[in-house]
């Protein structure tokens, strides 16, 4: 399988030429911006989500502290009991002290458990709620973002943000955040007490905090970088999985499962490497966090014993010092865990907001216009378009659409004809504003598509894409996907299926309720295309955009659909992208797209007579047959074997130097000719 | 869907995997399957696990040594220093303290690394297993299972396992050991309190059983819900154009919101359960301490027990319950991971319907003679798509397969590439049943350009080179030239290194077809199947491809499916298919000259030409 974005760990997608106007660069800049924030600043972006549940979280923190206190109190009670009531009671045979003690221990024990339960209950709901809210908002935002965004962002990257990153965040909110607060409080208070009561010893312990703070900072920096890398790689891995399933037919057809596995294995191994790096960094921190406090205690011990021997402090004070230090030590050791959890959560937040702060480049206008009485006039005026990643100079730097002027009168059907890659689909996608013109305008009934809400525009415009893009739902749901609320009856379904000649749906195992598999893959190619056509028709648009809608159909079915469409489309303005004369036959007018412009518009027969480029694009009858040179056969075989490249270049170049040359060499022409002579 | 492992209905493989409330027997089978998988995954890492365990123990001992050293220092060295001005013992203890600190630090670092190596090793292994299985399974399976679920197995489910592995498998082991050790010591000191402790295990076990059965269901629900969220997400993002063009955003928000809420609720339920279980364990521990105190205290009053022993006993009881919360947490992760492993192991035991032969017949150099003998095929039982077909295609013949949409042309092609196995009859390549050929030989011999031209994200070059891994740039370029794709590739910003984006969205539909075509060109198989490989091409482009084909196909078997009858021109033979039956079979000239279906089709097509 081809290598993926994993090769480019610094961004979701490689950018060919660094250029500030390019969206992909924008993403990266934004990602870098997210990464350059301090952890606090980065996490602050969560505040709006956390604020409503802040009281619960604070209560949770209190419960956690309370539980710790309860737990700490038990030994004290036991101590008191042993020293007091038990020893004295033994003499006086007074058992009441014991009962009091037991009661107290029981009470504290129940309180501890109760507070733990309360803490969980308090934090649990906000944790999952915040997660769910972030998740649905991401989904909504992603649905809102333009197609060009989705072109650039690999699916796995989006998915991993929505699932793993938010899962990390939930766990941090439920455990990490709390532990962070409780541990920090314990450490600060503990060290405060140590310094206040321990004198020199306290200062020694405090001195240990200095290297630890430094350590924690360098750790954070390094860990953050690796954590980001690992989460990005996990996203790429998800992309690889997704593609390996979506492309499974190709992988099977070429027997490339093993290669795919190898490439996936490499990628997964890279992720493993990153995770191990993470563990390495983590282990360093853990080692220091464990060793430094112990080391300072070792030093304190020597100094402390010396001080006692000098009579500067009492043994009791020394013992008290160590007892308190023991309480501070364990949260210090936990700090490593909590810190890494927090940094992971922070990476998750960064990654999440990378997407959430991507602005929609195709927003709805502030004061939207509406086409109140649509006739369906569609006009392109001086339309320019270039894709975001087009280079500014060199090959391929010209605008894909370089000043398109075309008017489709209401109710007319216009065929758009041009060579492969000439920009037909691009032009078609501008109508429902899936992409945005970079110059000029597209108008429906005189209203610029940018002045309407997308919702309104898309209720006027129906589309059939060149690949069907169906969903794994029933035939009914697929066909009625965009149907307005008042046109979702069985009759509407029937009509759409009928126009698209998709009656086969009734013969499916469960009729129109049959689920058609992921992306409609349990249908034949032509069946998928007809469902997609029916879907466009069922949407009851005023303007219909059909991108090569009959390419997968046989001649008979094509003719039948044409007959139905001809009457059906009477009222509807239709832009139909066509490669074949048979499709063109549907149209009132033909527009020729050449070098990014409409170079000719007219009825088919007229253009055929007058326009050379049109003839070149659409006609198969012209030109006579030049039999391939005898050695061509051998050459092609060598090509297949990857040999004799030079020979081929020559052979093909000489044949292809001019369009006329390409035109001339047509096997079909020869066949037609020879056949004609036989008759 | 077939599956081979026997088990109570609804628990084999992935069948019924969304079911969360399983019967006792079903639950047992899937649980065992998932544990088997876990054991299987861990067994190669036995050594690592041991090392990690030892390191944890060493680090614990080193940390526990601290208080002991403090005690010695105060008890003995203080006197020596004060009374004899003898620094040696103090410095010695201080030195030991430093050594203990270093040992604790180093061993904890070693533990972190070792356990990461183990857990990452396990995850890598499992990822690859699932990936391999995904590739191994037949199309039939994928059609109904959907990519989203596989992704959820590979991501969200795997993360559950990761949580378990990261939750410190070995530190739990040491925790449990500690408990056992403490418990045993307690029995030695005072068996009566030992009995109290033992009695406390009864409610603890009951609580754990309760948690186990409940959480099993909840975690299953959580896994199922997470898969639903992912499936919905993936499908929406894949079809985003249609979603936007048909204004499905709001409806999708509702659906997705519902799934996300379901997932949230399932998580909340599972976490809520744990929110009872975990404090429940703490409660049991605390009550036990109180009871032990009461029992011990009363015995002290009756003179059966020394106060000193009571203190020790209470300390032991407390320590016994020390790791309990951690163990509760661990058990919780374990339940979650087991639910995930249930799904993953279900996918892993699924058997492909198209199986590799146990003893493949070698076919080093296929000639390309294809024979169908009484082939029947149905996707859905009882609805035959191909009713009994016989066909003989001699090596080297170029066959055009035409017919109405939905007739079964692609189906025939897919049988030939063995995407599916015939329902009856046999399909032979050079006299060998394709079911007896190894996948490797078959794929080398038969290559199909599928009707949907799928490109992977990655460079143009990598995409074409899929036809022949390791192909040089020259070979790739030659293939591109041969199908007329070279020119447009050169126009791309980075030429052959341009990323075509997901699904080849960076290039036009026709360009995608050309690239898929170049891919097949490079593969150079004995039998080439082209399923509507030129349907989106412009006519000049198609001509160029025809020309390339004519030479390419000169001596290889080819099956060309096309609605544009131009293809027929280069065919030696035409098959017309109707409802799965080959109704006409002859040379193009014969059929066109006749009065049959093809003659009519052809006439209609010719009329359409200009
Ligand atoms: N998402 C994209 N990003 C960058 N370039 C693109 C993108 N999609 C298409 N292109 C380029 O823009 C040009 C026009 O593509 P378009 O899909 O509009 O062609 P088309 O006329 O529809 O061709 P076809 O007949 O093959 O469908 C092509 O050269 C293509 O490589
Ligand atoms: N995966 C599948 N599961 C169930 N039914 C299927 C599946 N694939 C195809 N079919 C059905 O089998 C029949 C034949 O489909 P096939 O794809 O072979 O048609 P085709 O001749 O290639 O048509 P087209 O020209 O439209 O591509 C159709 O009725 C189709 O609905
Ligand atoms: Mg197109
Ligand atoms: Mg087909």
TrEMBL record, chain A:
Its main location: membrane. Residues 1-11 have a biased composition (Basic and acidic residues). Residues 1-27, 652-679 are annotated as: Disordered. It comes from the Bacteria. It is a multi-pass membrane protein. Residues 385-620 form the ABC transporter domain. This is ABC transporter. It comes from Luteimicrobium album.
TrEMBL record, chain B:
The keyword Transmembrane helix applies. The chain crosses the membrane at residues 49-70, 90-112, 169-189, 195-211, 276-294. It is a multi-pass membrane protein. Residues 1-14 have a biased composition (Low complexity). Residues 1-28 are annotated as: Disordered. Residues 370-604 form the ABC transporter domain. It is found in: Cell membrane. Pfam families: ABC_membrane, ABC_tran. Residues 50-336 form the ABC transmembrane type-1 domain. The keyword Transferase does not apply. Keywords: ATP-binding, Membrane, Nucleotide-binding, Transmembrane, Transmembrane helix. PANTHER family: ATP-BINDING CASSETTE SUB-FAMILY B MEMBER 10, MITOCHONDRIAL, ATP-DEPENDENT PERMEASE MDL1, MITOCHONDRIAL. This is ABC transporter. It comes from Luteimicrobium album. The lineage of its organism: Bacteria, Bacillati, Actinomycetota, Actinomycetes, Micrococcales.
């Amino acid at each position: 399988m081809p290598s993926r974005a994993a090769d480019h760990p610094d961004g979701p997608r490689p950018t060919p030429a660094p250029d500030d106007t390019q969206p992909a660069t924008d993403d990266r800049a934004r990602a870098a911006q997210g990464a350059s924030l301090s952890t606090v600043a980065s996490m602050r972006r969560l505040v709006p989500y956390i604020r409503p549940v802040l009281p619960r979280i604070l209560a949770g923190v209190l419960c956690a502290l309370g539980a710790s206190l309860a737990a700490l109190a038990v030994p004290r009670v036991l101590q008191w009991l042993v020293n007091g009531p038990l020893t004295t009671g033994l003499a006086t045979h007074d058992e009441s002290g014991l009962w009091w003690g037991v009661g107290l221990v029981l009470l504290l024990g129940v309180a501890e458990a109760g507070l733990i339960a309360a803490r969980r209950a308090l934090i649990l709901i906000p944790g999952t709620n915040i997660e769910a809210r972030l998740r649905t908002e991401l989904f909504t935002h992603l649905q809102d973002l333009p197609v060009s965004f989705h072109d650039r962002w690999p699916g796995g990257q989006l998915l991993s943000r929505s699932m793993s990153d938010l899962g990390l965040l939930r766990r941090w909110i439920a455990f990490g955040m709390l532990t962070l607060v409780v541990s920090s409080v314990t450490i600060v208070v503990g060290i405060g007490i140590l310094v206040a009561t321990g004198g020199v010893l306290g200062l020694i312990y405090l001195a240990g905090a200095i290297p630890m703070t430094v350590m924690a900072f360098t750790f954070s920096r390094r860990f953050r970088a690796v954590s980001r890398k690992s989460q990005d790689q996990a996203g790429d891995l998800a992309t690889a999985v997704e593609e390996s399933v979506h492309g499974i037919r190709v992988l099977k057809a070429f027997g490339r499962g093993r290669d795919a596995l190898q490439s996936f294995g490499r990628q997964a191994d890279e992720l493993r490497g990153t995770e191990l790096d993470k563990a390495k960094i983590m282990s360093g921190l853990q080692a220091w966090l464990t060793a430094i406090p112990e080391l300072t205690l070792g030093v304190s011990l020597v100094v402390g014993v010396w001080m006692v021997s000098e009579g500067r402090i009492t043994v009791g004070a020394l013992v008290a010092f160590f007892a308190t230090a023991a309480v501070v030590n364990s949260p210090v050791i936990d700090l490593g865990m909590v810190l890494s959890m927090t940094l992971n959560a922070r990476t998750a937040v960064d990654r999440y907001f990378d997407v959430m702060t991507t602005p929609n480049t195709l927003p709805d206008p502030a004061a939207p216009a509406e086409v109140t009485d649509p006739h369906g006039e569609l006009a392109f005026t001086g339309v320019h378009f270039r894709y975001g990643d087009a280079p500014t100079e060199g090959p391929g730097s010209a605008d894909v659409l370089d000043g398109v002027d075309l008017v489709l009168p209401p109710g007319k059907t216009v065929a758009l004809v041009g060579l492969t890659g000439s920009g037909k689909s691009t032009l078609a996608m501008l109508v429902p504003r899936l992409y945005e013109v970079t110059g000029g305008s597209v108008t429906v009934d005189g209203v610029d598509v940018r002045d309407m809400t997308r919702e309104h525009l898309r209720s006027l415009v129906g589309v059939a894409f060149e690949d069907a893009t169906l969903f794994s739902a029933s035939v009914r749901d697929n066909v009625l996907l965009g149907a307005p609320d008042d046109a979702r009856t069985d009759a509407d379904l029937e009509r759409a299926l009928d126009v698209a000649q998709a009656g086969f749906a009734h013969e499916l195992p469960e009729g129109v309720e049959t689920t058609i598999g992921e992306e409609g893959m349990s249908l034949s190619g032509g069946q998928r295309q007809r469902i997609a056509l029916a879907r466009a028709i069922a949407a009851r648009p005023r303007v219909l955009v059909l991108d090569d809608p009959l390419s997968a159909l046989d001649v008979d079915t094509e003719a039948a659909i044409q007959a139905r469409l001809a009457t059906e489309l009477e009222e509807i303005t239709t832009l139909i992208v066509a490669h074949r004369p048979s499709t063109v036959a549907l149209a009132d007018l033909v527009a020729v797209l050449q070098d990014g412009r409409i170079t000719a518009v007219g009825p088919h027969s007229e253009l055929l007579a007058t326009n050379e480029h049109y003839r070149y694009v659409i006609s198969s009858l012209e030109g006579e047959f030049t039999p391939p040179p005898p050695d061509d056969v051998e050459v092609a075989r060598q090509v297949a074997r990857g040999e004799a490249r030079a020979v081929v270049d020559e052979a093909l170049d000489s044949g292809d130097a001019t369009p006329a040359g390409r035109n001339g060499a047509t096997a079909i022409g020869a066949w037609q000719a020879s056949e004609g002579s036989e008759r | 869907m077939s599956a081979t492992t026997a088990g109570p209905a609804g628990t084999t493989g992935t069948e019924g995997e969304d079911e969360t409330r399983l019967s006792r027997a079903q639950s047992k089978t899937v649980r065992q399957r998932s544990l088997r998988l876990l054991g299987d995954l861990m067994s190669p890492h036995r050594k690592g696990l041991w090392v990690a365990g030892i390191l944890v123990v060493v680090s614990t001992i080193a940390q526990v040594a601290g208080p002991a050293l403090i005690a010695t220092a105060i008890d003995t060295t203080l006197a020596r220093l004060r009374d004899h001005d003898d620094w040696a013992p103090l410095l010695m203890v201080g030195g030991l303290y430093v050594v203990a600190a270093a040992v604790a630090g180093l061993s904890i670092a070693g533990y972190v690394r070792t356990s990461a190596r183990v857990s990452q090793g396990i995850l890598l292994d499992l990822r690859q297993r699932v990936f391999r299985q995904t590739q191994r399974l037949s199309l039939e399976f994928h059609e109904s299972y959907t990519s989203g679920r596989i992704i959820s197995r590979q991501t969200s489910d795997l993360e559950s396992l990761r949580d378990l592995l990261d939750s410190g498998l070995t530190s739990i082991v040491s925790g449990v050991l500690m408990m056992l050790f403490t418990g045993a010591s307690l029995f030695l000191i005072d068996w009566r309190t030992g009995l109290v402790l033992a009695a406390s295990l009864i409610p603890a076990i009951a609580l754990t059983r309760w948690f186990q059965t409940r959480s099993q269901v909840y975690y299953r629900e959580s896994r199922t819900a997470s898969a639903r969220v992912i499936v919905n997400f993936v499908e929406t993002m894949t079809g985003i154009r249609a979603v936007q063009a048909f204004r499905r955003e709001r409806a999708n928000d509702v659906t997705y919101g519902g799934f996300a809420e379901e997932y949230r609720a399932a998580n909340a339920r599972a976490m809520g359960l744990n929110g009872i279980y975990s404090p429940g364990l703490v409660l049991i521990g605390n009550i036990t301490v109180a009871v032990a105190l009461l029992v011990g205290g009363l015995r002290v009053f009756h003179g059966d027990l020394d106060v000193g022993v009571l203190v020790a006993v209470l300390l032991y009881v407390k320590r016994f319950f020390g790791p309990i919360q951690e163990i509760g947490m661990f058990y919780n992760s374990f339940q979650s991971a087991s639910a995930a492993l249930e799904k993953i192991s279900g996918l892993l035991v699924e058997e492909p319907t198209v199986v590799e032969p146990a003893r493949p017949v070698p076919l080093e150099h296929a000639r390309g003679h294809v024979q169908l003998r009484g082939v029947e095929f149905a996707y859905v039982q009882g609805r035959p798509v191909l009713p009994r077909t016989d066909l003989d295609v001699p090596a080297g013949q170029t066959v055009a397969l035409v017919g109405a949409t939905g007739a079964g042309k692609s189906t025939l092609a897919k049988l030939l590439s063995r995407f599916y196995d015939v329902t009856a009859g046999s399909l032979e390549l050079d006299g060998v049943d394709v079911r007896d050929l190894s996948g490797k030989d078959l794929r080398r011999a038969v290559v199909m350009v599928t009707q949907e031209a799928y490109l992977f994200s990655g460079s143009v070059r990598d995409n074409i080179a899929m036809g022949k891994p390791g192909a040089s740039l020259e070979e790739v370029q030659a293939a591109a030239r041969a199908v007329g794709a070279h020119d447009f590739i050169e126009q791309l910003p980075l030429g052959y290194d341009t990323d075509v984006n997901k699904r080849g969205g960076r290039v036009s539909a026709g360009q995608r077809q050309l690239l898929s075509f170049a891919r097949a060109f490079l593969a150079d198989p004995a039998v080439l199947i082209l399923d509507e490989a030129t349907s989106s091409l412009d006519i000049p482009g198609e001509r160029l491809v025809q020309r390339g084909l004519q030479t390419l196909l000169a001596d290889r078997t080819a099956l060309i499916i096309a609605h544009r009858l131009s293809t027929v021109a280069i065919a030696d033979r035409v098959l017309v298919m109707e409802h799965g039956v080959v109704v006409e079979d002859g040379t193009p000239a014969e059929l066109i000259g006749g009065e049959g279906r093809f003659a009519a089709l052809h006439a209609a097509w010719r009329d359409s030409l200009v």
